Amino acid sequence: MRPLLEGRTAVVTGGAQGIGLAIARTFLAEGAKVVVGDLDGQAAAAAAAELGGEDTVVGVPCDVVSGEDVQRLIDEAAGRFGGLDVFVNNAGITRDATMRTMTEDQFDAVIAVHLKGTWHGTRLASAHMRERKSGAIVNLSSLSGKVGMVGQTNYSAAKAGIVGMTKAAAKEMAHHGVRVNAIQPGLIRSAMTEAMPQKAWDQKMSEIPMQRAGEIEEVASVALFYASDLSSYMTGTVAEVTGGRFM
């Protein structure tokens, strides 16, 4: 069977670790050429070296808050691999605190990386893709953007905003052949989530009908679905990868 992304080029922001790295690995396995963008340029280069040779994957430093940095990712994809077919807006940070204790800087930083960063990726990738009359953009939201989480007024607002942005961009780009969809992961097993206090972990687990945390590969496979022709008649949609939590 032909690989789902054979002959295509993808960019993944925040691709040096966690869900982003899993997405990059999955895309490569399905035949794509991949540009891994990450704020930590050394980590991006190391991830690329781990994933394969320079003929299939390259790591590029990128601060998604900077439109110039994001454009550099797209230029790298086009220059090195001949085009851009898939763009995954995955880069993100957390600065959790209650509203009473959250600083303005903590709020601004999370909004900038998630919301402005996703806007840069979506607008710049779609500008390239519309010329080719095809392309898929995948935006990483979160279950926090659906239900709101204590201590995450910044993160929940940003992740909810990504859903609205995804739908607005999907409407703008549909007639240009560019699809824009979003994924809302729930509790996904990673170094970050496994570091949370046991009481918090147990509380979250009690809310999941499937009674387990998700794996990063289970988010990556949904990103692959949205990136490929399997979802060719889908745009402006939101996939919840949550084990049924808060359905």
From TrEMBL:
GO terms for biological process: fatty acid elongation. Transmembrane segments: none annotated. It comes from the Bacteria. One of its GO terms (molecular function) is oxidoreductase activity, acting on the CH-OH group of donors, NAD or NADP as acceptor. InterPro entries: KR_dom, NAD(P)-bd_dom_sf, Sc_DH/Rdtase_CS, SDR_fam. It holds the Pfam family adh_short_C2. Keywords: Oxidoreductase. The keyword NADP does not apply. PROSITE patterns: ADH_SHORT. SMART domains: PKS_KR (SM00822). Residues 8-191 form the Ketoreductase domain. The keyword Oxidoreductase applies. PANTHER family: 3-OXOACYL-[ACYL-CARRIER-PROTEIN] REDUCTASE, CHLOROPLASTIC, SHORT-CHAIN DEHYDROGENASES/REDUCTASES FAMILY MEMBER. Belongs to the short-chain dehydrogenases/reductases (SDR) family. This is 3-oxoacyl-ACP synthase. It comes from Intrasporangium chromatireducens Q5-1.
